[in-house]
């Protein structure tokens, strides 16, 4: 469903993705691994249409994703309904006055009836175990709670693919355990998961595949996740560990 062909992306004079070729299929659970600055976040931005390739092409369900198409509101809505993005920084994602409104935002944008919106919100509150927070203001919550709300606000649109940028960052151990179990559950329920991470200790059992980026912003390995994280020599040599 996701296919990148010879993709390059740079910010002004800074390279971020160098000749990326990759295919990700429905139902996969993929970890994006690599040193700081290797391009993991840019890769996630690109597959979510936040940025578009400067060279090469990005195909989503065989459709070429271009700035022009993303500027078309019908295409854009349809695309963003299928792939959801949980930002690294929850504060940049949460902007409504209550948790309920936050989770209701996506389904309302999609034009659902209030009854259907309400149903979706309650399903997601329950799934993330945050019913008690529904009247709270997101900015008052802990890091772990904010992350759950951000995930719920993405899931309320029922996307096929969930992408997460370093979701374990700044989360306490209990919250990390919840997120780990939750990602396993999501993938078992058929959702495709693509997630950047360096917190190997807390994500055991979540990923089948690892895509490894180098400091030169290239993909240097695409392999079984466990094989990669057991390869100490490889991780150390590539400044991953
Ligand atoms: N908004 C930006 N403006 C300029 N350079 C950026 C920006 N975001 C990222 N970069 C640069 O792009 C490269 C890849 O960054 P990023 O995708 O954030 O890597 P990672 O998520 O693996 O740490 C780095 O060299 C980084 O400094
Ligand atoms: Mg990053």
UniProtKB/TrEMBL annotation:
Q: What is its main location?
A: membrane
Q: Which Gene3D superfamilies match?
A: P-loop containing nucleotide triphosphate hydrolases
ABC transporter domain location, by residue?
Answer: 2-240
CDD domains per the UniProt record, alphabetical: ABC_cobalt_CbiO_domain1
Compartment list: Cell membrane
User: Has UniProt tagged this entry with the keyword Membrane?
Assistant: yes
Q: Name one GO molecular function term.
A: ATP binding
Query: Cellular component per GO?
Result: ATP-binding cassette (ABC) transporter complex
Query: Which residue windows are transmembrane per the record?
Result: none
Q: Which UniProt keywords apply?
A: ATP-binding, Cell membrane, Membrane, Nucleotide-binding, Translocase, Transport
Question: According to Swiss-Prot or TrEMBL, what is its membrane topology?
Answer: Peripheral membrane protein
Name the family: Belongs to the ABC transporter superfamily.
- The entry's protein name is ATP-binding cassette domain-containing protein
Organism field: Clostridium bovifaecis
Lineage runs: Bacteria, Bacillati, Bacillota, Clostridia, Eubacteriales
């Amino acid at each position: 469903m996701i296919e990148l062909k010879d993709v390059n992306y740079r910010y002004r004079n800074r390279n971020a993705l160098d000749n990326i070729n990759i295919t990700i299929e429905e139902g996969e659970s993929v970890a994006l691994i690599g040193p700081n600055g290797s391009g993991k976040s840019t890769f996630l931005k690109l597959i979510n249409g936040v940025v578009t390739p400067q060279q090469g092409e990005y195909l989503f369900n065989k459709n070429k994703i271009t700035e022009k198409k993303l500027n078309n509101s019908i295409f854009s809505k349809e695309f963003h309904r299928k792939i959801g993005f949980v930002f690294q920084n929850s504060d940049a994602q949460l902007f409504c006055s209550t948790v309920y409104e936050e989770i209701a935002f996506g389904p309302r944008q999609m034009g659902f009836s209030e009854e259907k919106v309400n149903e979706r919100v309650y399903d997601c509150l329950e799934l993330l175990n945050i019913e008690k927070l529904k009247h709270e203001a997101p900015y008052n919550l802990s890091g772990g709670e904010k992350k759950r709300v951000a995930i719920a606000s993405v899931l309320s649109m029922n996307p096929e693919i969930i992408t997460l940028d370093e979701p374990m960052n700044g989360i306490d151990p209990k919250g990390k355990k919840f997120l780990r179990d939750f990602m396993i559950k999501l993938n078992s329920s058929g959702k495709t998961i693509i997630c950047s991470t360096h917190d190997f200790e807390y994500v055991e059992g979540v990923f089948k595949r690892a895509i490894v980026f180098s400091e030169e912003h290239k993909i240097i390995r695409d392999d079984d996740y466990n094989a990669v994280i057991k390869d100490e020599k490889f991780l150390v040599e590539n400044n991953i560990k």
